[in-house]
Amino acid sequence: MAGETTKVHKPSSLPLEGRVAIVTGASGGIGKSIASHLQSLGARVAKADLLVSEINTSGTSPQPQEIAVRADISDLDQVKLLFDRTEQEFCSKIHILVNCAGDDGSQVSSFGQYSS
Ligand SMILES: NC(=O)c1ccc[n+]([C@@H]2O[C@H](COP(=O)([O-])OP(=O)(O)OC[C@H]3O[C@@H](n4cnc5c(N)ncnc54)[C@H](O)[C@@H]3O)[C@@H](O)[C@H]2O)c1
What we know:
Blueprint: E1 20-24, H1 29-40, E2 44-49, E3 66-70, H2 76-90, E4 96-99
Parallel strand pairs: 1-2, 1-4, 2-3
The protein binds nicotinamide-adenine-dinucleotide.
Nicotinamide-adenine-dinucleotide binds next to helix 1.
């Protein structure tokens, strides 16, 4: 019909496009690999670790695809700050959490206490 427009929904090229993830232990072997994989699938990723200087990020941009956050996940206040900063930087709620931070089991995660 003349004048009628049809909305064409362009399918997302990547399955996790528009999704926001937090990966803890992102300086370590497993966390680093998972963070990279999530990014390859289109997710924006907050990479968190005690050793944030070892995290590679692509620098600053108006719409960052990744951020590096120094956070000790055994400290509830730092976990809350990690979540808050991730939501603020990506202007989004968090969709995915991958908790790889750890050592020999002497550190205790605070994620179990985080309920908001
Ligand atoms: N690699 C394996 O084969 C294997 C097998 C079984 C279990 N795990 C467990 O899986 C987890 C990840 O393994 P990995 O090989 O990637 O270890 P990894 O040591 O390479 O990386 C762990 C990362 O966690 C960070 N981290 C430790 N405590 C933290 C804290 N309180 N807050 C924030 N970051 C902290 C460290 O700085 C490090 O970068 C570990 O808990 C490990 O014990 C690993």
